[in-house]
Every structure is written in C-alpha cells, then in structure tokens.
Design a protein that fits this description.
Cytidine Deaminase, domain 2, 10-stranded mixed sheet, 12 strands
Length: 175
C-alpha cells in the first residue's frame, strides 16, 4: 500500500465545520488568525471524523499568521496514530472578508502531502457557509485552488458525527 493513497472525495460532517468556526472565532475576535486540523482515515473516500484544536505552548495566533510547532504536531500524531487517524486537512482563518488566497506562508510552510486539504475561512472565522471558504488541495508538488464545481463534487457535506479534541505540546486532551 502506498504511504499516501489517493483521495478522490472527502466526507465532511457539518458538525466539523461548526466546530472549526467555534474554535477559531475567539482568536478572530482578538484580530488574530487561528486554525484546526481535520483528521480521519485516509482512503479513496476519506471521512473527517475528528477536529483537533491545537492550543498552548507552540501555537502562535497573530494578526498575520497562525503557526504550530513540531512538538504540537507530534502530540497530535501521538493521539491520532493509535486509533488509525491521519491528518487530512488544515482549516485556518484569514482576517479579510474577501475570498481568501493562500499566503506565501500557507503555500510554502503548510502540510505537503498529496491530496491534503488546506481550507481558508475568511472574515476571522465568521463565514458560516463552507461554500464561501477557499478550498485548496495539494497536488503535483503545490497547492491549487479547487473550483466551485470540483469542491461540490469532491467535498460531500454530511450529517455525520465528529470527535473534538484540544491538544497541545504537553499532549493534554480536552473532550
């Protein structure tokens, strides 16, 4: 089996979108960017089953950037691996209301895994409708924005359940 089996479609519970927004909006109210990780089992059709909000030491929320240290990524991995979950996407905010574009930081310091999603929620996380978010997929060594038609075809919003965890470099988890 290839280390990164191709993903043709993601199943995204509406609850994951709501948890994403509720997690990032406190930073947005302060004027800072924030984000979450979307995890699930990687397969041809991959379902997001967990939203992880990185917090604490190693997480930087600023007006121009959201970043997460290697130690925090390691803590998330240590939590996810035993239950068979993989990082499928990263959703983060931009402060502007206009349709967001990937920043240089997003493009060059983001997750570089085939078929990884990078989602940008505009307006400090206030945009409720995922169709107003910017959807990017990592393909052929770079991120490219998915068209509206491709997003509709490849990202299926569902009524499924999703687990929520707050994880930091100290590996604490809050349900």
């Amino acid at each position: 089996m290839a280390p990164f089996p191709p993903i043709t479609q993601w199943r995204l519970p509406q609850a994951a979108c709501e948890l994403t927004r509720s997690s990032v909006m406190p930073a947005g109210r302060r004027g800072d960017e924030s984000g979450v990780f979307w995890l699930g089992r990687r397969d041809k059709v991959s379902e997001i089953t967990a939203v992880v909000f990185p917090a604490g030491d190693g997480v930087h929320e600023t007006p121009i950037c959201w970043s997460v240290s290697a130690e925090v990524y390691a803590a998330v991995s240590a939590w996810a691996r035993p239950v068979g979950l993989a990082l499928l996407g990263v959703a983060h905010t931009h402060l502007c209301r206009a349709k967001p574009q990937m920043s240089r930081t997003d493009r060059f310091q983001g997750m570089k895994v085939p078929d990884a999603l990078s989602i940008i929620v505009p307006a400090m996380g206030r945009e409720r409708d995922p169709s107003g978010w910017a959807w990017f997929v990592y393909t052929a060594g770079d991120y490219r924005e998915m068209t509206t038609a491709e997003t509709v075809r490849r990202v299926e919003l569902t009524d499924g359940k999703v687990e929520f965890a707050v994880i930091g470099s100290d590996a604490r988890r809050t349900p």
